[in-house]
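FORM 7B: Structural annotation worksheet

SECTION A. Query
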Amino acid sequence: MRLKTNISYKPIKTMLRLSSALKITTIALAAMLCSESLMAQGKMTRDEYIAKWADVAIEHMEIYGIPASITMAQAIVESGSGNSVLARTANNHFGIKCGSKWTGAKVYHDDDAKGECFRAYTSAEESFADHAEFLHTRERYNFLFSYDTDDYISWAKGLKQAGYATAPTYAEGLINVIESEKLYLLDRKNGRKLYDDYMAQKLGLGKPKEQPKSDITPESEVADQTLAYADRGIDPNNFRVTINSHCGYNVYLTNRANYVIAREGDTYKSIGKLFELSQRTLRKFNDAPKRLELKAGDVVYVERKASHWRGEGLTHRTKRGETLRLISQIYGIRLKSLMKLNNLSEDIMFEGDELIRLR
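SECTION B. Predicted structure
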Protein backbone atom coordinates (compact mmCIF):
# COMPACT_ATOMS: atom_id res chain seq x y z
CA MET A 1 0.00 0.00 0.00
CA ARG A 2 1.30 3.44 -0.86
CA LEU A 3 0.07 6.58 0.82
CA LYS A 4 0.23 10.12 -0.55
CA THR A 5 1.70 12.73 1.73
CA ASN A 6 -1.22 15.14 1.26
CA ILE A 7 -4.00 12.89 2.50
CA SER A 8 -4.93 11.40 5.85
CA TYR A 9 -3.84 7.83 6.42
CA LYS A 10 -6.53 5.24 5.81
CA PRO A 11 -6.23 1.92 7.62
CA ILE A 12 -5.58 -1.04 5.38
CA LYS A 13 -8.99 -2.60 5.82
CA THR A 14 -10.65 0.67 4.83
CA MET A 15 -8.53 0.88 1.69
CA LEU A 16 -9.73 -2.53 0.59
CA ARG A 17 -13.45 -1.77 0.79
CA LEU A 18 -15.26 -1.68 -2.51
CA SER A 19 -16.31 1.68 -3.91
CA SER A 20 -20.05 2.35 -4.38
CA ALA A 21 -19.82 1.73 -8.12
CA LEU A 22 -18.24 -1.65 -7.50
CA LYS A 23 -20.89 -2.50 -4.91
CA ILE A 24 -23.55 -1.97 -7.58
CA THR A 25 -21.72 -4.39 -9.84
CA THR A 26 -21.43 -6.90 -7.00
CA ILE A 27 -25.19 -6.69 -6.29
CA ALA A 28 -25.92 -7.31 -9.97
CA LEU A 29 -23.51 -10.24 -9.94
CA ALA A 30 -25.20 -11.73 -6.88
CA ALA A 31 -28.63 -11.48 -8.52
CA MET A 32 -27.39 -13.22 -11.68
CA LEU A 33 -25.61 -15.93 -9.71
CA CYS A 34 -28.65 -16.51 -7.51
CA SER A 35 -30.80 -17.35 -10.53
CA GLU A 36 -28.10 -19.71 -11.77
CA SER A 37 -28.06 -21.41 -8.37
CA LEU A 38 -31.81 -22.05 -8.49
CA MET A 39 -31.43 -23.61 -11.92
CA ALA A 40 -28.81 -25.93 -10.45
CA GLN A 41 -31.52 -27.46 -8.20
CA GLY A 42 -30.24 -25.86 -5.03
CA LYS A 43 -26.56 -26.63 -5.61
CA MET A 44 -24.12 -23.74 -5.42
CA THR A 45 -22.42 -22.95 -8.70
CA ARG A 46 -18.69 -22.43 -8.88
CA ASP A 47 -19.15 -18.76 -9.76
CA GLU A 48 -21.50 -18.26 -6.83
CA TYR A 49 -19.10 -20.02 -4.47
CA ILE A 50 -16.22 -17.77 -5.54
CA ALA A 51 -18.36 -14.65 -5.19
CA LYS A 52 -19.33 -15.68 -1.65
CA TRP A 53 -15.87 -16.53 -0.31
CA ALA A 54 -13.43 -14.36 -2.29
CA ASP A 55 -13.32 -11.62 0.35
CA VAL A 56 -12.43 -14.14 3.06
CA ALA A 57 -9.67 -15.58 0.86
CA ILE A 58 -8.27 -12.09 0.25
CA GLU A 59 -8.37 -11.30 3.98
CA HIS A 60 -6.44 -14.47 4.78
CA MET A 61 -3.90 -13.57 2.10
CA GLU A 62 -3.31 -10.22 3.80
CA ILE A 63 -2.98 -11.74 7.27
CA TYR A 64 -1.22 -15.05 6.59
CA GLY A 65 0.32 -14.67 3.13
CA ILE A 66 -1.61 -17.54 1.53
CA PRO A 67 -2.57 -16.56 -2.04
CA ALA A 68 -6.30 -15.93 -2.29
CA SER A 69 -6.31 -17.94 -5.51
CA ILE A 70 -4.88 -20.96 -3.68
CA THR A 71 -7.44 -20.75 -0.87
CA MET A 72 -10.29 -20.55 -3.37
CA ALA A 73 -8.93 -23.30 -5.63
CA GLN A 74 -8.41 -25.67 -2.70
CA ALA A 75 -11.91 -24.97 -1.41
CA ILE A 76 -13.40 -25.57 -4.86
CA VAL A 77 -11.50 -28.82 -5.39
CA GLU A 78 -11.90 -30.19 -1.85
CA SER A 79 -15.56 -29.26 -1.36
CA GLY A 80 -16.94 -29.36 -4.90
CA SER A 81 -17.73 -25.65 -4.57
CA GLY A 82 -19.40 -26.25 -1.23
CA ASN A 83 -21.59 -29.12 -2.46
CA SER A 84 -19.70 -32.15 -1.15
CA VAL A 85 -21.15 -34.32 1.61
CA LEU A 86 -18.32 -33.26 3.94
CA ALA A 87 -18.98 -29.57 3.29
CA ARG A 88 -22.75 -29.85 3.69
CA THR A 89 -22.77 -32.09 6.78
CA ALA A 90 -19.63 -30.94 8.62
CA ASN A 91 -18.85 -27.50 7.12
CA ASN A 92 -15.45 -28.92 6.16
CA HIS A 93 -14.48 -27.16 2.91
CA PHE A 94 -10.80 -28.18 2.77
CA GLY A 95 -10.85 -31.91 3.49
CA ILE A 96 -8.76 -31.48 6.65
CA LYS A 97 -8.57 -34.68 8.65
CA CYS A 98 -8.68 -34.82 12.45
CA GLY A 99 -5.03 -35.47 13.27
CA SER A 100 -3.79 -36.40 16.73
CA LYS A 101 -4.11 -32.87 18.18
CA TRP A 102 -7.66 -32.11 17.04
CA THR A 103 -10.04 -31.74 20.00
CA GLY A 104 -13.09 -30.44 18.16
CA ALA A 105 -16.09 -32.21 16.66
CA LYS A 106 -15.49 -35.11 14.27
CA VAL A 107 -17.19 -36.94 11.44
CA TYR A 108 -16.19 -40.13 9.68
CA HIS A 109 -16.01 -40.34 5.93
CA ASP A 110 -14.50 -42.67 3.32
CA ASP A 111 -11.44 -41.16 1.64
CA ASP A 112 -8.04 -42.80 1.10
CA ALA A 113 -9.28 -45.42 3.55
CA LYS A 114 -12.72 -46.37 4.83
CA GLY A 115 -14.20 -44.39 7.72
CA GLU A 116 -11.46 -41.78 8.13
CA CYS A 117 -11.80 -39.05 10.74
CA PHE A 118 -12.42 -35.50 9.50
CA ARG A 119 -12.79 -32.22 11.36
CA ALA A 120 -16.31 -30.86 11.77
CA TYR A 121 -17.02 -27.15 12.16
CA THR A 122 -19.95 -25.07 13.34
CA SER A 123 -19.78 -22.92 10.21
CA ALA A 124 -18.03 -22.64 6.85
CA GLU A 125 -16.28 -19.50 8.14
CA GLU A 126 -14.67 -21.61 10.86
CA SER A 127 -13.45 -24.05 8.21
CA PHE A 128 -11.80 -21.26 6.19
CA ALA A 129 -10.14 -19.89 9.34
CA ASP A 130 -8.86 -23.32 10.37
CA HIS A 131 -7.43 -23.89 6.89
CA ALA A 132 -5.34 -20.71 7.18
CA GLU A 133 -4.13 -21.66 10.66
CA PHE A 134 -3.47 -25.23 9.54
CA LEU A 135 -1.06 -24.11 6.81
CA HIS A 136 0.47 -21.35 8.91
CA THR A 137 1.26 -23.47 11.97
CA ARG A 138 2.36 -26.80 10.45
CA GLU A 139 6.13 -27.00 10.09
CA ARG A 140 5.96 -28.98 6.87
CA TYR A 141 4.28 -26.02 5.14
CA ASN A 142 6.78 -23.40 6.39
CA PHE A 143 8.68 -23.25 3.09
CA LEU A 144 5.53 -22.16 1.25
CA PHE A 145 5.55 -18.78 2.99
CA SER A 146 8.81 -17.82 1.32
CA TYR A 147 6.89 -17.65 -1.98
CA ASP A 148 5.21 -14.43 -3.04
CA THR A 149 1.43 -14.27 -2.80
CA ASP A 150 1.11 -14.00 -6.58
CA ASP A 151 3.17 -17.17 -7.16
CA TYR A 152 0.25 -19.60 -7.21
CA ILE A 153 2.18 -22.17 -9.26
CA SER A 154 4.88 -22.60 -6.59
CA TRP A 155 2.22 -22.74 -3.90
CA ALA A 156 0.23 -25.41 -5.74
CA LYS A 157 3.29 -27.58 -6.34
CA GLY A 158 4.48 -26.97 -2.79
CA LEU A 159 1.19 -28.13 -1.29
CA LYS A 160 1.48 -31.40 -3.19
CA GLN A 161 5.15 -31.72 -2.19
CA ALA A 162 4.27 -31.17 1.48
CA GLY A 163 1.64 -33.91 1.31
CA TYR A 164 -1.59 -31.93 1.58
CA ALA A 165 -3.25 -34.40 -0.79
CA THR A 166 -2.38 -37.82 -2.16
CA ALA A 167 -3.74 -37.32 -5.69
CA PRO A 168 -0.76 -37.31 -8.08
CA THR A 169 -2.30 -34.50 -10.16
CA TYR A 170 -3.32 -32.34 -7.18
CA ALA A 171 -1.04 -29.41 -8.10
CA GLU A 172 -2.11 -29.47 -11.74
CA GLY A 173 -5.74 -29.56 -10.65
CA LEU A 174 -5.35 -26.45 -8.51
CA ILE A 175 -3.49 -24.59 -11.26
CA ASN A 176 -6.16 -25.54 -13.80
CA VAL A 177 -8.95 -24.17 -11.57
CA ILE A 178 -7.01 -20.95 -10.89
CA GLU A 179 -6.31 -20.30 -14.54
CA SER A 180 -9.68 -21.37 -15.94
CA GLU A 181 -11.56 -19.21 -13.40
CA LYS A 182 -8.97 -16.39 -13.46
CA LEU A 183 -8.62 -16.65 -9.69
CA TYR A 184 -5.11 -15.21 -9.98
CA LEU A 185 -6.82 -11.82 -10.28
CA LEU A 186 -7.66 -12.08 -6.57
CA ASP A 187 -3.94 -12.14 -5.71
CA ARG A 188 -3.33 -8.73 -7.24
CA LYS A 189 -3.74 -5.25 -5.84
CA ASN A 190 -7.47 -4.39 -5.87
CA GLY A 191 -8.02 -8.06 -6.67
CA ARG A 192 -11.73 -8.20 -5.83
CA LYS A 193 -12.44 -5.31 -8.19
CA LEU A 194 -10.40 -6.95 -10.98
CA TYR A 195 -12.25 -10.23 -10.49
CA ASP A 196 -15.69 -8.60 -10.37
CA ASP A 197 -14.90 -6.62 -13.52
CA TYR A 198 -14.01 -9.90 -15.23
CA MET A 199 -17.22 -11.54 -14.00
CA ALA A 200 -19.32 -8.58 -15.12
CA GLN A 201 -18.03 -9.01 -18.65
CA LYS A 202 -18.38 -12.79 -18.49
CA LEU A 203 -22.03 -12.53 -17.45
CA GLY A 204 -22.82 -9.76 -19.92
CA LEU A 205 -23.40 -7.07 -17.31
CA GLY A 206 -21.22 -4.58 -19.16
CA LYS A 207 -18.18 -2.76 -17.96
CA PRO A 208 -18.72 -1.05 -14.57
CA LYS A 209 -18.27 2.68 -14.24
CA GLU A 210 -14.69 3.85 -14.11
CA GLN A 211 -13.55 4.10 -10.51
CA PRO A 212 -12.24 7.37 -9.09
CA LYS A 213 -8.50 7.64 -8.75
CA SER A 214 -7.19 5.91 -5.65
CA ASP A 215 -5.60 7.72 -2.75
CA ILE A 216 -2.83 5.14 -2.96
CA THR A 217 0.32 6.20 -4.74
CA PRO A 218 1.55 3.69 -7.38
CA GLU A 219 4.44 1.57 -6.18
CA SER A 220 6.72 2.97 -8.87
CA GLU A 221 6.27 6.48 -7.46
CA VAL A 222 7.36 5.69 -3.91
CA ALA A 223 11.04 4.97 -3.26
CA ASP A 224 11.97 2.44 -0.59
CA GLN A 225 13.81 4.34 2.11
CA THR A 226 15.95 1.72 3.83
CA LEU A 227 19.35 1.00 2.28
CA ALA A 228 21.61 -2.00 2.79
CA TYR A 229 23.42 -0.07 5.46
CA ALA A 230 25.29 -2.68 7.49
CA ASP A 231 28.39 -2.84 5.33
CA ARG A 232 28.52 0.96 5.06
CA GLY A 233 28.31 1.90 8.73
CA ILE A 234 25.15 3.91 8.11
CA ASP A 235 22.35 4.39 10.62
CA PRO A 236 19.10 3.31 8.91
CA ASN A 237 17.19 5.90 10.96
CA ASN A 238 18.82 8.57 8.81
CA PHE A 239 16.84 7.21 5.86
CA ARG A 240 13.44 7.02 7.46
CA VAL A 241 10.92 8.71 5.20
CA THR A 242 7.64 9.94 6.65
CA ILE A 243 4.90 8.76 4.30
CA ASN A 244 2.04 10.17 6.33
CA SER A 245 0.71 10.48 9.85
CA HIS A 246 -2.18 8.75 11.59
CA CYS A 247 -3.55 9.48 15.06
CA GLY A 248 -0.35 11.36 15.91
CA TYR A 249 2.00 8.60 14.67
CA ASN A 250 4.33 9.09 11.72
CA VAL A 251 3.89 6.32 9.14
CA TYR A 252 7.12 5.11 7.52
CA LEU A 253 7.99 2.83 4.62
CA THR A 254 10.54 0.03 4.32
CA ASN A 255 10.67 -2.57 1.56
CA ARG A 256 7.15 -1.54 0.43
CA ALA A 257 5.60 -2.11 3.86
CA ASN A 258 4.26 0.64 6.15
CA TYR A 259 5.17 0.82 9.83
CA VAL A 260 5.15 3.08 12.89
CA ILE A 261 7.55 3.49 15.81
CA ALA A 262 6.27 2.32 19.20
CA ARG A 263 6.14 4.78 22.09
CA GLU A 264 6.39 4.25 25.82
CA GLY A 265 3.34 2.32 27.00
CA ASP A 266 2.29 1.13 23.53
CA THR A 267 1.05 -2.42 23.07
CA TYR A 268 0.18 -4.48 20.02
CA LYS A 269 -3.44 -4.17 21.10
CA SER A 270 -3.37 -0.35 21.36
CA ILE A 271 -1.60 0.16 18.02
CA GLY A 272 -3.77 -2.45 16.34
CA LYS A 273 -6.89 -0.59 17.48
CA LEU A 274 -5.65 2.62 15.80
CA PHE A 275 -5.18 0.82 12.48
CA GLU A 276 -8.28 -1.41 12.69
CA LEU A 277 -6.18 -4.53 13.13
CA SER A 278 -6.54 -7.19 15.80
CA GLN A 279 -3.66 -7.75 18.20
CA ARG A 280 -3.30 -11.23 16.73
CA THR A 281 -3.00 -9.91 13.19
CA LEU A 282 -0.50 -7.22 14.19
CA ARG A 283 1.67 -9.82 15.92
CA LYS A 284 1.64 -11.93 12.77
CA PHE A 285 2.69 -8.93 10.67
CA ASN A 286 5.65 -8.44 13.05
CA ASP A 287 6.56 -12.11 13.73
CA ALA A 288 6.00 -11.37 17.42
CA PRO A 289 5.45 -14.30 19.83
CA LYS A 290 2.59 -14.03 22.31
CA ARG A 291 4.78 -13.11 25.28
CA LEU A 292 6.85 -10.50 23.44
CA GLU A 293 5.80 -7.00 24.46
CA LEU A 294 6.58 -3.72 22.76
CA LYS A 295 9.11 -1.22 24.04
CA ALA A 296 9.64 2.38 22.98
CA GLY A 297 11.47 2.61 19.65
CA ASP A 298 10.34 -0.77 18.28
CA VAL A 299 9.33 -0.97 14.64
CA VAL A 300 5.69 -2.06 14.26
CA TYR A 301 4.54 -3.00 10.76
CA VAL A 302 0.87 -2.29 10.07
CA GLU A 303 0.81 -4.48 6.97
CA ARG A 304 2.46 -7.71 5.91
CA LYS A 305 6.19 -7.68 5.23
CA ALA A 306 7.73 -8.88 1.96
CA SER A 307 9.28 -12.27 1.22
CA HIS A 308 12.67 -10.80 0.28
CA TRP A 309 14.66 -7.57 0.19
CA ARG A 310 13.87 -5.31 -2.76
CA GLY A 311 16.51 -2.65 -2.09
CA GLU A 312 20.25 -2.46 -2.69
CA GLY A 313 22.57 -5.21 -1.52
CA LEU A 314 22.15 -8.94 -1.20
CA THR A 315 23.35 -9.50 2.37
CA HIS A 316 23.40 -8.04 5.86
CA ARG A 317 26.49 -8.22 8.06
CA THR A 318 25.38 -8.93 11.61
CA LYS A 319 26.41 -7.12 14.77
CA ARG A 320 26.81 -8.85 18.12
CA GLY A 321 23.45 -9.40 19.81
CA GLU A 322 21.32 -9.03 16.69
CA THR A 323 18.62 -11.66 16.17
CA LEU A 324 17.15 -12.90 12.94
CA ARG A 325 13.83 -11.34 13.91
CA LEU A 326 15.49 -7.95 14.49
CA ILE A 327 17.01 -8.16 11.01
CA SER A 328 13.61 -9.07 9.59
CA GLN A 329 12.17 -5.92 11.18
CA ILE A 330 15.00 -3.70 9.91
CA TYR A 331 14.54 -4.81 6.31
CA GLY A 332 10.81 -5.47 6.26
CA ILE A 333 11.21 -9.17 5.43
CA ARG A 334 9.11 -11.97 6.92
CA LEU A 335 10.98 -14.02 9.50
CA LYS A 336 10.07 -17.34 7.89
CA SER A 337 11.42 -16.10 4.58
CA LEU A 338 14.74 -15.13 6.17
CA MET A 339 14.94 -18.56 7.80
CA LYS A 340 14.46 -20.29 4.47
CA LEU A 341 16.92 -18.00 2.67
CA ASN A 342 19.60 -18.80 5.25
CA ASN A 343 18.77 -22.47 5.90
CA LEU A 344 17.83 -21.80 9.53
CA SER A 345 15.05 -23.53 11.43
CA GLU A 346 14.57 -20.95 14.19
CA ASP A 347 15.23 -17.38 15.25
CA ILE A 348 18.77 -17.09 16.62
CA MET A 349 21.08 -14.45 18.13
CA PHE A 350 24.32 -13.74 16.29
CA GLU A 351 27.81 -13.22 17.69
CA GLY A 352 28.44 -10.66 14.96
CA ASP A 353 30.26 -10.40 11.62
CA GLU A 354 28.13 -13.00 9.84
CA LEU A 355 26.55 -12.50 6.43
CA ILE A 356 22.77 -13.01 6.23
CA ARG A 357 21.14 -13.42 2.85
CA LEU A 358 18.32 -10.98 2.16
CA ARG A 359 17.15 -12.42 -1.17
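SECTION C. Observations
The chain has a mean pLDDT of 78. The beta strands are 106-109, 116-119, 242-246, 249-254, 257-261, 299-301, 315-317, 355-357.

SECTION D. Sign-off
Analyst initials: ____
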